[in-house]
Amino acid sequence: MSKVYNTTSSRFFCTKCGREGIPVHRKKGQEREDGHLKKLYCMYCQEEVNHVEIKEYGNYTVDDFKQEYELGRFINGERIEKKDLIECSNIDCPFNVDGRCWNSNYSNDCGHRIQKEVDENG
Ligand SMILES: [Zn+2]
User: Fold this and answer.
1) How far is the CA of 42 from the centre of ligand 1 (A)?
2) How far is the CA of 28 from the centre of ligand 1 (A)?
3) Which of 3.30.300, 2.30.30, 2.20.28, 3.40.50 is the CATH number of 7-58?
């Protein structure tokens, strides 16, 4: 029986400013799912903001966060589920990922966002 605690360290990135915060160590077995959001104090924003957790050996990487952050997927620190994102047919748009618009925070005014109020049978 070993008394060494198996810990794993996670990196945290602020969903507001995109910068890296202070890493957190977790005991093995207490890890959260990939890309888990956790409210932490951001020294740059100087307030508590949701941070994305990037585990040492997870499937969610810094590149995944950068993509989500740069495309504007976070609104007020929350992330919209992929299935709930607006569908987009403009496959040339850099914000279009697998047919969904990742620009949830509307930082990019592409003009392709159509509200589903139009009667498509007309
Ligand atoms: Zn921040």
Assistant:
1) 5
2) 27
3) 2.20.28
HEC readout, the chain? CCCCCCEEEEEEEECCCCCECCCEEEECCCCCCCCCEEEEEECCCCEEEEEEEEECCCCCCHHHHHHHHHHCCEECCEECCHHHCCECCCCCCCCEECCEECCCCCCCCCCCCCCCCCCCCC
Q: What is the pLDDT of residues 39-85, one digit of tens each?
A: 999 999 999 999 999 998 889 999 999 999 999 999 999 999 999 99
Please classify residue 21 by burial: count the beta carbons closer than 10 Å to its beta carbon, then call 0-12 exposed, 13-18 middle and 19+ buried.
Answer: buried
d(CA 63, CA 32): 19
Domain ranges of the chain: 7-58
